[in-house]
Structures
1.
Amino acid sequence: MTIDTISSKELTKIDPVFGQNSFDNHEQIVFCNDKDTGLKAIIGIHNTVLGPALGGTRMWSYNSEWEALNDVLRLSRGMTFKSAITGLNLGGGKAVIIGDSKTMKTPELMKRFGEFVNSLSGKYITAEDVGMETSDMDLVREVTPYVTGISESKGGAGNPSPITAYGVFMGMKAAAKFKYGTDVLEGKKVVVQGIGHVGEALVEHLSCEGAHVVISDINEERLDLVSKKYDVSIYRGSDIYSEDMDIYAPCALGATINDDTIYKIKAEIIAGAANNQLASENKHGKLLQERGIVYAPDFLINAGGIINVYAELENYGKQEIMRKTENIYNTCLEILERSKQYNITSNDAALAIALERIEERKIENSK
Ligand SMILES: NC(=O)c1ccc[n+]([C@@H]2O[C@H](COP(=O)([O-])OP(=O)(O)OC[C@H]3O[C@@H](n4cnc5c(N)ncnc54)[C@H](O)[C@@H]3O)[C@@H](O)[C@H]2O)c1
């Protein structure tokens, strides 16, 4: 089953939880509230067939609780498929904390959130996502062992973002190989939208390769810093989607490929870190395919972060992390070839492999 992004208004017309189109057979949803710290969080546990549900915590100022719920459901579902296609023994889960991370995040709130995670006894393992830092995970670690992405000084694998960026770079190269017959990105115009933890590290790889990098962000300070550091240009126009480019790398938030943008996009390849880039997997996945735009599925190519935090659970080192992340290149190329062979979208080709693995494990588990 695929899912769509819909407006807050539309969401309210559907049954509150089980009826949401992003629900897609979630096993469990936990609503967490704490009056003293102001914590309002939702933990989504989509599927635990392959293992405990692992996925980051996002802190964001949602316009409504509907949006927060829809976001966590979409994200946790995505984690199920991300871990499955990457070959990890993990299920899919995610958490959102409602509020502005810059003004509302306190150590007390993070620890209280950690206590809720702890109450699930390991069925959900948290990590960092948008609005979170490694130091926040260190606070969560004080109250629960069910957290990854803690500081290296505290025995963790550290910040996953550089590894995520490396995986995205590998996926982008595979998409280039598929489209152009060569994976060399030198001279290609790549627009990186969102130059946060992952985006900046991606800019570094692209600059080293000699790509023509253009960056965009809503944060002026970051634009200034990153453009100077890597000598890359800043997008100053008013409609980034209409910009001439070879590759579009969405590294901010999801659903940027939607009804408003899809016909404007001139890129030949889309490969970025953001989760759930297609507002509607079906509709926009097919439209990209029809327009000949190669889409490297987000949940496949942004798996570097989860590979990195999985190392904390499985006790493997940096070398294995890099090997697994580099393999994203092969998997991405294989999926793009499959989508061509069977005339299906790349997203569907990736989903099919992930679902196959989950179904096989379900049968094994029931024996
Ligand atoms: N950090 C990881 O390891 C990881 C792993 C998998 C997926 N992701 C996904 O990748 C994306 C980026 O993650 P991150 O850790 O770099 O987050 P981040 O918060 O560090 O960076 C996001 C950046 O996007 C910018 N931004 C927000 N809205 C924007 C807009 N409309 N236009 C342009 N820029 C905008 C922000 O100002 C910020 O600089 C997220 O969607 C996240 O879920 C991250």
2.
Amino acid sequence: MPKEESFAVNRIKSVGFALRGALLLIKTEASIKIQVFLAIAVTIAGFYYEISTTEWIFQIFAVSLVVGIEGANTAIEKICDFIHPDFDERIGFIKDVAAGAVMLVSIGAIIVGCIIYLPKIF
Ligand SMILES: Nc1ncnc2c1ncn2[C@@H]1O[C@H](COP(=O)(O)OP(=O)(O)OP(=O)(O)O)[C@@H](O)[C@H]1O
């Protein structure tokens, strides 16, 4: 029987797997690369325009939501390609819905960005 590991060791291992997943995502997915670039750009803009604590909270929340949902979308795409590599309308539907979720949170993030920065720029 395998030796039982402590709760703490298991948690640390899980964090390691999650970090590896985040790195894989950034390394392999073009859309995540763009989102990470935009996240860095708005972070610089946040410091430049000295946005308030509340604005930082909304900005960080919006950026994390987009990147997080994009990660889930990538995982769904990979599962689809693994379980059913051939063309199937149902796979198309699943992938479209997952992509739609990314689009919805992205629209929200763009609106948050406009509310924060438009009054500061113009
Ligand atoms: N096996 C399939 N069966 C039916 N339609 C599919 C299939 N694979 C992809 N599609 C259609 O093509 C679209 C794009 O799918 P794809 O897996 O290429 O994702 P993508 O948007 O190019 O993802 P990314 O660029 O993030 O890797 C899907 O939203 C879906 O409409």
